[in-house]
């Protein structure tokens, strides 16, 4: 596994609401990503502010945090195998 890289991928509230989780996971797997963890979460404001800290000075930051809190998020970790 020395040539594998872990990637965090979040399926945002609209993707969950529109029942696209299965299709998104399918497409990731077709691109060579191997799902190793998945969790449905309701992200807290503090978690989102920490996750998006590099965007805190942008004018859309507050709206982004509010949007990401608007519904559940599917948090995933994948392995990207480089063959």
Short recap of the structure:
With 83 residues, the protein is of the alpha+beta class.
What does this structure look like?
By secondary structure, this protein is of the alpha+beta class. 36% of the residues lie in helices and 31% in strands. It has four helices and three strands. It has a three-stranded antiparallel beta sheet. The model has no long low-confidence stretch (mean pLDDT 92).
Largest sheet: 3 strands, antiparallel
Please, what is the average pLDDT? 92
Q: Would you identify the regions where 5 or more consecutive residues have pLDDT less than 50? A: none
Supply Rg.
14 Å
Structural class label: alpha+beta
Helix content: 25-40%
Q: Helical stretch count?
A: 4
- What is the ordering of alpha helices and beta strands? EHHEHHE
Major beta sheet, strand line-up: 1-3-2
How many strand elements?
A: 3
Distance between the termini: 11 Å
Based on Cα principal axes, name the global outline. globular
Task: Classify the beta-strand content into a percent band.
Answer: 25-35%
């Amino acid at each position: 596994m020395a040539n594998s890289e872990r990637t965090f991928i979040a399926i945002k509230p609209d993707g969950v609401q529109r029942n696209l989780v299965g299709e998104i996971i399918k497409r990731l797997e077709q691109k060579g990503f191997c799902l190793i963890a998945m969790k449905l979460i309701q992200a807290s404001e503090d978690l989102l502010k920490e996750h998006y800290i590099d965007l805190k000075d942008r004018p859309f930051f507050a709206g982004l945090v509010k949007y990401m809190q608007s519904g559940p998020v599917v948090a995933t970790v994948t392995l990207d195998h480089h063959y």
